[in-house]
Amino acid sequence: MMAPVEERQRHAARELDPNNPLPVVAPSTTFETVSEQISSIVLTRKTPLFWWCCFGFGIFLLIWFAIAVTYLLGKGVGIWGIEIPNGWGFAITNFVWWIGIGHAGTLISAILLLLNQSWRNSINRFAEAMTIFAVMCAGLFPLLHLGRSWIFYWVFPYPNTMTVQPNFRSPLVWDVFAVSTYFTISVLFWYLGMIPDLAMFRDRAVERWKKAIYGIMCFGWRGASHEWKWHQSASLLLAGLATPLVLSVHTVVSFDFTIAILPGWHSTIFPPYFVAGAIYSGFAMVVVLAIPLRSVYGLHNLLTVRHLNNCGKLMLATGLVLAYTYCIEPFTAWYSGNEFEMAVVRNRAFGPQAWSFWGVILLNVIIPQGLWFYKVRVKPQPLFFMGCVVLVGMWLERYMIIVTSLGRDFLPSSWATFVATFWDNATLYGSVGLFITLFMLFVRFLPMVPVAEVRELLPFSKPGGGTEK
Amino acid sequence: MPQYFARSANTIYRLVLFASAGSVVVVACLGYLIVRSPYESMQNVPREQPIPFSHEHHVGGLGIDCRYCHTTVETSAFANVPPTKVCMNCHSQMWATSPTLEPVRESYRSGRSIEWTRVNDLPDFVYFNHSIHVHKGIGCETCHGRVDKMPLTWQAQPLTMEWCLNCHRHPERYVRPRDQVVTMGYKYPPNQLEVGRKLMTEYHIQSLTSCSNCHR
Amino acid sequence: MNETVQPGFVPIEALTGPRGREYWRSLDDRDAAYTPEENEQFSEEGVAVSEASRRRFLSLMAGSLALAGVTGCTRQPTETILPYVDPPENVIPGKPKYYATAAPVNGVAEGVIVESHLGRPTKVEGNPDHPANLGATSVHSQACLMDLYDPDRSREILKLGVPQTWDAFQIAWEHAIGPLAARNGAGFRILTETIVSPTLGAQIQALLKKYPGAQWHQYDPAGSHSARAASMAAFGKSINTYYNFATADIVLSLDADFLACGRASTRYAHDFAARRRQGDRLDMNRLYVVESTMTATGGKADHRLGLPYSQIEAFAAELASQLSIPGGASGSQYGFWTTRVARDLQAHKGASVVITGEHQSPAVHAYVHAINETLGNVGKTVIYTAPLEEQPVDQIASLRQLVDDMKAGRVEVLLILGGNPVYNAPVDFQFADALNHVKTSIHTGLHFNETALKTTWHLPETHFLEDWGDARAFDGTVSITQPLIAPLYDGSHSQLQLLDALIAFPGRTPYEIVRSYWGANSGAGNFEQWWRKSVHDGMIANSALPAITLAVAKNVVRTAAAAAPNDSSMEISFRPDVYMYDGRFANNMWLQELPHPMTKLTWDNAIYLSPNTAAHLGFENQQHVELQLHGRTVWGSVWILPGQPDSTATVELGWGRWHSGRAGNGAGFNAYAVRTSDALWSANGVQFRKLANPYPLASTQMQQYMEGRQVIIENTVDYYKRNPGFVPKAEHEPEENLTLYPHWDYRGYAWSMNIDLTACVNCQACVVACQAENNIAVVGKEQVLARRAMHWLRIDTYYKGVPGNPTAHYAPIPCMQCENAPCELVCPVQATNHSKDGLNDMIYNRCVGTRYCSNNCPWKVRRFNFLLFQDWTTETWKMQRNPDVSVRSRGVMEKCTYCVQRIREAEITSQDENRFIRDGEVKTACQQACPTQAIVFGDKNNPNNRVSKLKAEKLNYHMFAELNTRPRTSYLAELRNPNPEFEPGAAS
């Protein structure tokens, strides 16, 4: 077997040749190396400086988050820029944004599994982790944005002395069920997948206490064939459950707007529009996370250009769906002949907050067209840049949808322009901090690449054990 | 590779799993029970009063009509607590020197109110009106219980919204003839439901369950 | 005190207790009918207070937790009940009582009926029998409770800031007046505002009799100086003029905002609107307005002409000459207008009114007298009576003389009865400096204000709701004002009481004073009966001053025609603020936060400039500038006001107080600082300098153009005659069944409202009334800027046409109470639900605060407690709260409820009496306050009800009906009656 250096050079040479089918896993990888590679990150290798920086940064923002939330609960939602007519501002924007980001994870882990896309195997673990943490961040905002957060539980149907139940006609109640289901399924799926790898950690761990902890976490997994059998079917089952969620959750989220009669919200195109947007931003987040991990932890052999390329393609596709809806909206407004709808379109493009609209067009439509180019898709730096651009763009899109519609609705006398306050930003960036912190802990203490599933990709696992072409 | 855990670990493990799952259920049920317990609604708890006033004696024993003291119950939302003067109507003669009644005399002399502890107390955002309930034939007893058997007064009913709605949704179960409103220990006829319905039409009783009937 | 033994008709228990400290005790005995907060405010000494505060803490915790609604998880806190010891007769705990009295508004009395809960006045309504308002209310009488309960009121007698006793003052007084007494009191001066109280007048005379050498000066910054000067010029004596709009077909207003502010505006608005409705609106009166700034009246006009203040006189002169009145100056500057208006006026001799503003020049007033006489309006639509003032004088001269004497040291003792001359005297008088030459100066007032700061003594006054007194209304009708509550603060005395003490120490109680005065002057056979009736009715039967007939003696002497201002020499005009009046209401939070009719500005006054002038000067809206007038300067922000004449600026007086209290201090800028005695109302040569630091203005309506949307449907009467069905309805309103939800038919009552846009004059009385009735919080300027004002009811003001001279349109917007309510659909916790009688209920204690309902409301009438807006701590404000309405805490949504508490009360009363609710039995607070009866509320299921009839009218429409929300609130399209001769191309 040749020296890894040469290997990487040859590999790199191939990366830049589009006609050449890219391997999902670098040929040099074997059962042994992959286990070693992943477990060492957690068990033996020294924690890289990069990790400490990110973690520190995450904690720093997280502290801000804590301060912002404490102040919020103490003083009231009035510390934000929201007012009448703009009853919703950053909080709901963040909620929709985070939920959207979550979707890519589920798509990769569930849908691609069912579609038998082998390349998903090496990225699904951290993508799912991303989903879970994103949903956590998302889930916080509907609670925080309540005027009286401490009685959030009234949105749940439970026997109470008031004999009053939640209003099942309200999309917010649908949200509660959609999001909580989504979270539960994702967590189960994620953890189930991790069990074999945790067992592997247990076995490779040196210190007793680590053995103990991982031992407990892996439910005493022994790798017996019947265990594998159960494991397989359970995964498929959960994948089956999770698949519809990818579409349903964000559809329900979009109902928060479409059910309202507000011009700019009340639109039938929202569900597909939102789902596409969700996956768009989700894959953006995937590449934004994958590219640094890849280089820092030297996972080039597992997170290959094939992955980058596919993510890029998916972003491009979903991005185009969005672009289409952006074009359709003015058309339907004009076609409906409804003065209010047309006013919304005009207002978005030329109103006081036109910057948000044109920002969205630039960040979500124009710049990402770069993804047509193969080099942009497979070169880490440009792809990373694209990811960031799309993430910002998607946040801006939700912001635009919410405040431009609210700020100028039916009755001109109540028109007003939303202005964000310091605390709006504190909560937004704070939630990013929460995400980073959780994700860094995950990277540090849990298998970020599913060893077991990667092994399935290796030639030795295939019948005949032929080497890859 | 040597097994790290003893065999027994499995059992313990399962135990822990089920216990933790079970505890959630238990806690939920417990909370539910507490919320509905008399402890929470402070039901059946005799309340300390500056004067150990006994309804049992005045209503049960002497048979004084409720409205002799609670004069505004038929005219106002608020059923007043009698002014000291009303107490003194009798107690300037009876038990005129009894030390237990000293606070009453003191109040009468100084012109300072007796600070009674409130027994039946609804939240401030609930607007209850006595006059209409009395007028529609809801007995004092229905909400206040057998005060004629209360040496010290206590809250006889939970006074939760659920409890209010029981009657507001099915007045026919509880309504009684107007002349029986102040009766203690009123025996509902066996055919109360039809009697109730008759009274409902007679007294124009609607089942009011709109929010603003009680919350404004 | 011995009021307890008064034999007279003293209908309220508040008086049966002793005063001051003891008074608290007397109230302490009251039934705490509702919340414990209610009895805390009556608690006393240290111990009790600490006890109270503990109980309040508990109850607040309870309140918030209960509101937090952790139902069942919170046990009710222990509350106490404090029954009466000896109950006052006819007081039923839980039932409010109503008493008639009179509120001073713009210097005259307005009859009111005050609602009292257990001795706490909580709401003011108009007195239906009183000529000044016929049951409606002005913003000022609505808001007077905020003055009564103002925690910043002065509470103690102060000498140079040191608390003193009443007796100490008496001694000091004897000491000060002693040496003067030898000289018949020469050197003793009294300075009052305009006095319209017979008793007070008599007392001053009595005091002057005691000290013949003393002198009585009067000064009212917003007084009717010009009117007096004019009547002196025209008739040789000062008279009182008022108008009867009920019979006026044509009204010409020369710079008079008679519908929305000023004397008797409530009554005028009522009559004007009634005349506008006449004959199913087909026989409508016509209103011409020529004015120097955009006012609510101007917005209502059928024809409006914006002229600089100085040019109004030229206009009047021209009109006079058109009517061939000697002294008129022929000219053709305004020929187009004057010819047509003159023709119209002549066509309606005896059935027209020409009216001018108190602030216009004497010449204009004189012209108006002449014109009305020529048109034969006098005695018909224009009534002259003897003056209302006890002693009408040229107040400016009077004050000038006082100031000169003060500077010359001829004044040793100065008694300032009310008023605030240090703040509002003409700046060239330098009143404050003059005060330094006075040895003993005594100031009385509700507040320790700017003047009190400069005087040696300050005596707190009682509020008119705390004491006995009397006053005349605009037509002379006398009201005897009776107290609703014993004075909140020990040591406060009414002016009557003070004067009585100065005449003969220790003086009688106000009750005795007023009663004895009328005992001598009522001329009634059975005085006791007369007294009871007068006090009970809130007015003395037919005490209105008799009309007098006068002829204009002298021709109008026209002052030299002033040159029209231009951008190089701009003109400024002053006028009393619509709400602050002359500044006395500056600490009234309700009025501070009440949006101004045309600008929707709160918490500030502004420098009004026309769009052109602002453009010429290069000012954006809200540009902070320095206003320079003849060397004097003041800083303020510019507000670009459509309809403001070019090269003129208008500023409102009564702002920029520096010692009025926490609400008024620093709100707005002080225009008095540039107002001189020779230019009281207008001056030329004003200049502006841009300032760097921004000073934002808090307006509650950012967008004042309709963007071509069908918010307000309006047209002319002629058009309406030709096509009665012009109001689009059918094609807009979808069929009833166009909904997924099952149809609900409203048996029993179906409450609904109708608002007549033709009648609404944008006086904002309804908004304050709503605030008072529903415990609506005041949020302050910052929060208004953040667009979080809490008013449940708002009046939208829209401009139409060219910015230079637009028409204005007003739309009161309450909750529409939609039958298919969008808000109800989206609330996750069912905190807003539909009642069986079709009300859109809002349940505060169930609300978790998602604000989704507000997002989904097309009218954005819902208001949210973004922060803790309610004041939970100030005791006096708790006394004002309406016990029938929950006090909303932080984080819950609230909105107009159609005053559901009144509806439910009426339901219960009617059922107790085995009957149905009568039409008009339930009045919403806004409806009750509305001077023009633009708002009508009732059960639309009964076709005979007024509201049903109005909804059946052709003009009836629902705002945004196409949304199919089925609003219960509908509008009557606005009609105007322009003069066809004004049509371009019409024969001139």
Word description of this protein:
The complex is a heterotrimer of chains A (469), B (216) and C (988). With 469 residues, chain A is an all-alpha fold. Chain A has helices at residues 4-15, 31-43, 49-75, 90-114, 124-144, 171-204, 208-217, 225-258, 270-296, 305-336, 339-350, 354-366, 374-378, 380-407, 422-445, 451-457. Chain A is globular, with a radius of gyration of 23 Å. Mean pLDDT of chain A is 88; it is low at 464-469. Chain B contains ten helices and one strand. The longest helix of chain B has 29 residues, at 8-36. Residues 1-73 of chain C have low confidence and may be disordered. Chains in contact: A-B, A-C, B-C. The interface between A and C is large, with 49 and 60 residues. Strand 1 of chain B pairs antiparallel with strand 1 of chain C, so a sheet runs across the interface.
Q: Radius of gyration of chain A, Cα only, in angstroms?
A: 23 Å
First-to-last CA distance of chain C:
73 Å
Overall pLDDT level of chain C? 87
What percent of residues of chain C are in strands?
A: 15-25%
Distance between the termini of chain A: 15 Å
Largest sheet features of chain A = none
Helix content range of the residues of chain A, please? 55-70%
Percentage of residues in DSSP E strands of chain A: under 5%
Order of helices and strands of chain A: HHHHHHHHHHHHHHHH
Could you estimate the helical fraction of the residues of chain C in percent? 25-40%
Biggest sheet statistics of chain C: 7 strands, mixed
Total strand segments of chain C: 39
Q: Greatest interface and its residue counts?
A: A-C, 49 and 60 residues
Q: How would you state the average pLDDT of chain A, rounded?
A: 88
Order of strands, main sheet of chain C, comes to 6-5-17-16-15-7-8
Q: How would you describe the oligomerization state of the chains in this entry? A: heterotrimer
Structural class of chain C: alpha/beta
Number of strands of chain A: 0
Count of alpha and pi helical runs of chain A: 16
Which helices and strands appear, and what pairs or packs with what?
The complex is a heterotrimer of chains A (469), B (216) and C (988).
Chain A: H1 4-15, H2 31-43, H3 49-75, H4 90-114, H5 124-144, H6 171-204, H7 208-217, H8 225-258, H9 270-296, H10 305-336, H11 339-350, H12 354-366, H13 374-378, H14 380-407, H15 422-445, H16 451-457
Helix pairs in contact in A: 2-16, 3-15, 4-5, 4-8, 4-9, 4-14, 5-6, 5-9, 5-15, 6-7, 6-8, 8-9, 9-10, 9-14, 10-11, 11-12, 12-14
Chain B: H1 8-36, H2 38-41, H3 55-61, H4 66-69, H5 84-91, H6 102-110, E1 116-117, H7 130-135, H8 140-144, H9 161-169, H10 192-202
Helix pairs in contact in B: 5-6
Chain C: H1 20-28, H2 36-40, H3 46-68, E1 80-81, E2 97-105, E3 108-117, E4 120-126, H4 139-148, E5 157-159, E6 162-164, H5 166-182, E7 188-192, H6 198-210, E8 215-218, H7 225-235, E9 240-243, E10 250-254, H8 265-277, E11 286-291, H9 296-300, E12 303-306, H10 309-322, H11 335-347, E13 352-356, H12 362-374, E14 382-385, H13 395-407, E15 413-417, H14 421-424, H15 431-436, E16 440-445, H16 450-454, E17 457-460, E18 469-472, E19 478-481, H17 495-503, H18 510-521, H19 527-537, E20 570-576, H20 589-592, E21 601-602, E22 607-609, H21 611-617, E23 624-629, E24 632-640, E25 648-653, E26 682-690, E27 698-699, E28 714-716, H22 717-722, E29 751-756, H23 765-773, H24 781-785, E30 794-800, E31 807-813, H25 822-826, E32 832-834, E33 840-842, H26 852-855, E34 863-864, H27 875-880, E35 893-894, H28 900-912, H29 925-929, E36 935-939, H30 946-952, E37 956-957, E38 969-972, E39 974-976
Parallel strand pairs in C: 7-8, 7-15, 10-11, 10-13, 11-12, 15-16, 16-17, 20-25, 22-24, 28-39, 29-38
Antiparallel strand pairs in C: 2-3, 3-4, 5-6, 5-17, 9-14, 18-19, 20-26, 21-27, 23-24, 23-26, 29-36, 30-31, 32-33, 34-35, 37-38
Helix pairs in contact in C: 4-23, 6-17, 7-12, 10-11, 10-12
